[in-house]
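Supplementary notes for students who missed Thursday's class. We covered one full example, reproduced here. Read the sequence, then the structure, then the short commentary at the end.
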Amino acid sequence: MIDHVGFAVSDLARSDAFYTAALAPLGIAEIMRVTPEQTESGGTAIGYGKDNKPFFWIGDNERVGQGTHVAFTVDTRAEVDAFHAAGLAAGGTDHGAPGIRAHYHPNYYGAFVLDPDGQNIEAVCHRPE
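Structure (token representation):
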């Protein structure tokens, strides 16, 4: 299952205003804002969603077209580890080793691999170990 999707934007404030207004009728609002010190690539990221779950992200940490991000939900941390290893073995580039990202939430265990075209692909387990 897809956990969340993210896009790079050229003007974070402008895009934030747009998405805040455009998503409001859908019941989607800002859930989380992550600072440059907390992101894997630097820059600010804003997560929008429902029910305290951000599933659509925008960020100014990469160039437009390079910031595409898709995360897949998995059931175990071992699956996150296996995804990362398989992605690297298949020619991907490490973009964040498996581990806890507590700035998202205490049980957020994810890993990031850039595919051959530079797209940021993630596997994430939200369950405690």
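Commentary. The chain has two domains: 7-65, 68-129. The longest strand covers residues 93-100. If anything here is unclear, bring it to office hours.
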